[in-house]
Amino acid sequence: MLAGPCAAEDQPSAVQGRSAKDSLGGPESILGSFSFTSQREPIAITSDALEFNYRSRVLKYVGAVVATQGDMKLQSRTLTVTLDGQVENRIKEVVADGQVRVSKGSRWATGGRAVFNQDHHTVILSDNAELHDGGNVVKGDRVIVYLDEERSVVEGGKGRVEAVLVPSQNEETPSPTGGSKP
Fold first, then answer.
1. What one-character-per-residue DSSP string does 131-180 give?
2. What is the pTM assigned to this prediction?
3. DSSP SS3 for 70
4. Tens digits of residue pLDDT in 41-68
5. Which end of the chain has fewer CB atoms within 10 angstroms, the N or the C?
6. Distance separating alpha carbons of residues 106 and 55, to the nearest angstrom
7. Extents of the domains making up the chain
8. Three-class SS of residue 105?
């Protein structure tokens, strides 16, 4: 799934019971679990200003935006929410721009832009995306999470993808001879 150097191979994971897959690209990943409709909890949004265009069904929050859903938090300079024109109160797309930070407990992700697309079931974090989960870190220009496929793609853009994946204490480490080492 992810390519890159792995550091601290003999160190236990800072987050027990979660694999690198769950931390960085699985259904429990920081971006995968913040899809705005995957949970039935209410979404609370605060900002300096709000504009709602009734015809286009677009809400635009501007200035120090903070959106929360359960224990998830999204922060950005602006947040544009497009509602579905056919289904009442259904969110079609959410776009966060400017110093985007998504956090849940000890997990967090940052970038310049995040797009949560409900129709395509994708989350795209771009403009120097970084995902952190304990000691696990993935950096790239863009991270695409395919929610239905439980799959992520990290693109380097002009640079290279960087990854530091710390194995958990529960995972077996392969030995040089091909067997498993406890």
1. EEETTEEEEEEEEEEETTTTEEEEE-TTS--EEE-PPPTTSPEEPTTSSE
2. 0.74
3. coil
4. 888 999 999 999 999 999 999 999 999 9
5. C
6. 40
7. 20-170
8. coil
